[in-house]
Amino acid sequence: MNLLETRKLTKYFGDTHAVDNVDFKVGEGEVVALIGANGAGKTSLVNVISGFFPPDSGQILFRGVDVTNLRVDERIKAGIARSFQIVNLFDQLTLLDNVALSIFSREDATKTLWLVADRFGPVWQEAVDILRQFGLERTRAIVAGGISQGERKLLDVAVAYALRPQLLFLDEPTSGVSTRDKAQIMDIVTSVVRSRKITAVIIEHDMDIVFKYSDRIVAMQDGKILADGTPDEIRRNKAVTNTLIGAVDA
Amino acid sequence: MSTVAIPLTQGLSIKTVAWAVLIAAALALLPFAVGEYQTILLAYGLIFAIAALGLNLLLGYTGLLSFGHAAFFGTGAYVVALMVKYFHVQSMELFLLGTVGASLVVAFLFGFVSVRYTKIFFSILNLALSQVLWSLAYKFYWVTGGSDGLRVPTPTLLGGAIGVTDDKIHFLSHAYYYYVLVLFLACVLVMWVIVHSPFGKALQAIRDNETRARFVGIRIRQYRLVAYLVSGVFTGIAGALWVPLNGLTTPDILYWPFSGEIVFMCVLGGFQYFTGPIVGAVVFNYLKSWVVGATTYWQALLGIILVVLVLALPTGIVGTAKRIIDKARRAASA
Q1: A101·B4 Cβ contact <8 A
Q2: Which residue of chain A is at minimal alpha-carbon distance from B207?
Q3: What is the span of the domain harbouring residue B135?
């Protein structure tokens, strides 16, 4: 059974078909790369699946259950989490607080008014452990607004990872960072994801990263799926090489 | 998950507790050191501090600027006055119970409408809603006394254990001052726990990044509404404590400039800091009392002083003090 399946998923923005009758499947434990030129519909697809905005039509099944009309918090509880292309963090809070908030939310503890957060020792311990896995432990007491772009990208993923998702969407986890940092970020992220057997869908423009880190590649164009296959199959796919890889590399 | 001792992120240090105890002791001893007028003035300051603490849960911690909190302050004051007028209630505890209930109802109604919006829309919506209450208090004069307001006699305290005396000033500057002080300290403690709770962290997350907060599973409107309710109740309690001290409530305390004064208390003290609204409220109250006594053009003078203070102290009194202390520490350790 597929972990995620969309059936004829559609999202329009005016006359633009951002997501156009997309049937998208992700198997359990896969690391899938979603590629395509700007405006191909990658982020729109992820936005619809994660609940950022509702689809105009179609269905989203997660573990065979229809989650199309669930709220974002319900989708998170079901096991879907995401990071963002433009990093979304709690800038005035420390790195530790950023990750701890995900854990508090996951454990339904954010409803607690009458107990100070510091009393939740195991939450802070887990937050420290997660920061350590992402190589951010040394900067845990710094506010998120004061760290480098590479660290912010990692923290963005760490905040989503702390929700203990089964399916993690990573929207351009290496955009805006140096080539050297890109490899480092992807090494850390994929190692954490694979070690916990989390299914990941990565939107990425850098084709070296796409081919190196993904099990399967799905190429999109004009809101539709253009091709779907292993990295080798996509490399040999003329439609993709002619239209997308060339366009991305250019 | 294992239970491991982790260094507290923003915990209550022994130093902080020591300072809090010291300040509480100083406030308790104050009536013995200063005159009755000064003590009553401080009681006003502590009451406004409760209101400002309430507002700052929205402004400083949730990122919502309300220009309508006079509504809750006025609700507290008018509930007390109406309980006196219609039910001849004298007990301060019953006043507080009535106020908490009424503030919750008003806050729920206002909050249900306004927490759907943020920024200027939230601010203006709150202003508009509070003006509705003001106009009701102004126009329904057969109930509210209109512009003449309603008189509130001195209440009994602690279930009647402390009764009304002939010397009202002595009562207000001693028994009532301590009553206000204890409630002030309780409000500070409760608010401290709330803002340092996981709920408080969630509010700060919403303030910093609503989108991310939503995508860690926080239901934004629900949390904002709860914050709004807590904020309204705190400000309502302040109104209930204020009216016996003032002896009279008029529609003025429901009017928008009073909402502005509560906002200003937070800004003056430093809304980014927990103690900012407390310091701001006490300082603002002293400043206003002094200016009112100094000139008939007190509004102009107060305005000029406040503009200068805000320009000179952009992070508020507490923020500036903190910066100076940090600088001195760095210089000492260098």
Answers
A1: no
A2: A90
A3: 34-254
Q: Are residues A54 and A152 in the same domain?
A: no
Q: Are A249 and A207 in contact (CB under 8 A)?
A: yes
pLDDT of residue B310: 83
| Chain B residues lying within 8 Å of A114, measured CB to CB | 193-194, 197
Range of the domain at A53: 1-79+167-185+200-250
* Under 8 Å between Cβ of A229 and A197: no
Find out whether A144 and A155 touch, Cβ atoms under 8 Å. yes
Same domain, A111 and A226: no
> How far off is chain A from B201, nearest CA to CA, in Å?
7
Residue B175 phi/psi, 5° resolution?
-55, -50
| ipTM confidence | 0.92
Residues A172 and A52 reside in one and the same domain: yes
**B141 or A249, greater pLDDT:** B141
The helices-and-strands tally (H runs, E runs) of chain B is 15, 2
Structure tokens at B205: 């997350």
Asked, for residue A133, whether it belongs to a domain, the answer is yes
Q: pTM of the full predicted structure?
A: 0.91
Asked if residue B282 belongs to a domain, the reply is no
Same domain membership, residue A171 and residue A146: no
Alpha-carbon gap: A192 to the closest alpha carbon of chain B (Å): 18
Question: Residue A249: pLDDT band by 50, 70, 90 thresholds?
Answer: very low
pLDDT by residue (tens digit) across A142-158?
999 999 999 999 999 99
Q: What is the pLDDT of residues A113-125, one digit of tens each?
A: 999 999 999 999 9
User: What is the count of structural domains for chain B?
Assistant: 1
Three-class DSSP category at A25: strand
According to DSSP, the β-strands at A4-13 and A16-22 are antiparallel
Q: Report pLDDT digits (tens) over A165-221.
A: 999 999 998 888 888 888 889 999 999 999 999 999 999 888 888 999 999 999 999
Which of B192, B201, B272, B315 to substitute to test the interface with A, most A CBs within 10 Å? B201
Looking at the domain assignment, is residue A6 inside a domain?
Answer: yes
The backbone torsions φ and ψ at residue A60, rounded to the nearest 5 degrees and listed phi first, read -120, 120
In total, chain A counts a number of residues equal to 250
Contacts of A84 in chain B (CB under 8 A): 211-212, 215
A128 — contact with chain B (CB < 8 Å)? yes
Question: Which pLDDT score is estimated for A61?
Answer: 96
Residues 151-170, chain A, touching B (beta carbon < 8 A) = 159-160, 163
Q: Do B9 and A118 touch (CB under 8 A)?
A: yes
